[in-house]
Specification:
With 440 residues, this protein is α+β, with helices and mostly antiparallel strands. It has 2 domains: 266 residues, no CATH class; 157 residues, 2-Layer Sandwich (Heat Shock Protein 90), CATH 3.30.565. It is 50% helix and 19% strand. It is built from 16 helices and 12 strands. Strands 6, 7, 8, 9, 10, 11 and 12 form a 7-stranded mixed beta sheet that branches. β3 and β4 form a beta hairpin. α12 packs parallel to α13. The longest helix has 31 residues.
């Protein structure tokens, strides 16, 4: 653990990308924020109020009061406490949520510089006189400080607490898909309700979710890179075990983030599909290869059944088609303890320009009863709540697969019998590659 404890939080992230992420949050939510190390150094910040930048942080006495307030706020944020809310000695409200890396408190996500009720100008007028501020300019700056109703403060703070969880490499698995999506929807809905035009609020939420994918992935990739670096140096078995668990949690979080982003883009109708020539057999081989280690570790055999007459050179979105296949293969490996997994391809119909391909993944796993099957293609659900605890997963993979299949002119479903395995299938419309117009 020593190699991790020596790391500073700025070494774990891409600072420019983290800055862009915090600016996105500040623009959408409308209040100031910052990521501050436990040593008090501001790593990134966005949207700070002129009352702080031009007055409180400039005057030596009020600056000391800011630091004293920040210190008190940090002390109130301890392990196990998701966030803390504090009134600064200069009269504004701040909140903080801890960032934990491998269980160590390394930084905090701050948001604040707001009020929970109309400003007490008499208080701030006295403060201007006490510290020699230009009263007119100071009161004008105070008048610009956002007023956030007390009822919304906790909701916004919880959203930032979840952001702190996403920026850490340990405890990331605490943030489940349903909680993340629910908190984002609730927070953005409350923002929309605080404005006169609900439609404008919904547009802001859509832009926020659709454009921040890279900003979310980059800090996580930085965390994983540092874990890999620590693993190379680690020699103690216990330390290696902790690092491997942290890496697994980070990988699961990236999958969760990717699923949320894809689902959000699909819901917002902002997921474009490519149309490029590709080899169907190569796409299938690539997907199977990505699951080979998992299958081999469980003693599973994966086979392919592709008719010799089926055209190999097709045109469509091979990346999204592979994503569907990977979701099906991942489930087959996850819910099978023995036996064979079969990837099967057939043509449902065809014409002179295209065909409707049916891709199936058949396993000999635990199977699914009819009641559970009805829940499979709903957002954030699994066949049985106990499966989440035993097998993990966000419950988004199948609904994303179904929506992708719909976008590609087809559908997705399952045929299963409890105790006798399952066959997940998807149909997609694919054109013949321009260089090959062969039929089936």
């Amino acid at each position: 653990m020593d190699s991790i404890q020596l790391l500073k939080y700025p070494e774990l992230v891409d600072i420019p990308k983290l800055q862009a992420l915090m600016e996105s949050f500040s623009q959408v939510i409308g209040i100031a924020n910052a990521v501050i190390g436990i040593d008090g150094v501001v790593i990134v910040s966005a949207g700070w109020q002129t009352a702080c930048t031009d007055f409180h942080r400039v005057n030596s006495e009020t600056c000391w009061r800011c630091i004293e307030s920040d210190t008190s706020l940090v002390k109130s944020v301890t392990k196990g406490v998701p966030f803390a809310i504090y009134r600064c000695l200069n009269g504004l409200v701040d909140t903080a949520a801890p960032i934990l890396v491998a269980g160590e408190h390394v930084a905090n996500v701050f948001t604040g510089q707001f009020l929970t009720e109309a400003p007490d100008f008499e208080f701030f007028r006295k403060q201007a006189k006490e510290f020699g501020f230009d009263e007119t300019r100071y009161l004008e700056a105070i008048a610009k400080v956002p007023v956030i109703p007390q009822a919304r403060v906790e909701s916004i703070t919880r959203l930032y607490a979840q952001l702190a969880g996403m920026l850490a490499d340990n405890g990331l698995d605490r943030l489940t898909q349903k909680k993340a999506a629910t908190e984002l929807v609730v927070a953005n809905k409350e923002l929309a309700q605080s404005r006169d035009a609900a439609e404008a609020g919904n547009r802001a939420k859509t832009r926020f979710l659709a454009n921040m994918s890279h900003e979310l992935r980059t800090p996580m990739n930085g965390v994983m890179g540092m874990i890999d670096l620590a693993l190379r140096r680690a020699t103690d078995p216990k330390q290696i075990d902790i690092l491997n668990k942290s890496k697994g949690a980070a990988q699961r979080m990236i999958k969760v983030v990717n699923d949320i982003i894809d689902f959000s883009k699909i819901e917002a109708e902002r997921l474009p599909l490519e149309e490029k020539n590709f080899s169907l057999s190569q796409m299938i081989d690539d997907a199977v290869a990505m699951q080979d280690l998992t299958a081999e570790a469980k003693g599973l055999t994966v086979i392919r059944e592709i008719p010799a007459t089926f055209p190999d050179q097709l045109s469509g979105d091979a990346f999204r088609l592979r994503q569907i296949l990977l979701n099906f293969l991942g489930n087959a490996c996850k819910f099978s303890e023995q036996g064979m997994i079969t990837v099967r391809v057939n043509a449902v119909e065809q014409d002179d320009d295209s065909l409707l391909a049916r891709i199936e993944v058949e396993d000999q796993g635990i199977g699914i009863n009819p009641e559970q099957q009805a829940m499979l293609f709903q957002s954030f659900t699994q066949a049985d709540g106990s499966m989440t605890r035993k097998y993990g997963g966000s419950g988004l993979g199948l609904i994303i697969s179904k929506r992708l299949a719909n976008l590609m002119g087809g559908d997705a479903g399952v045929v299963s019998q409890e105790g006798h395995g399952s066959t997940f299938w998807a149909t997609v419309r694919l054109k013949y590659a321009k260089a090959s117009a062969a039929g089936v």
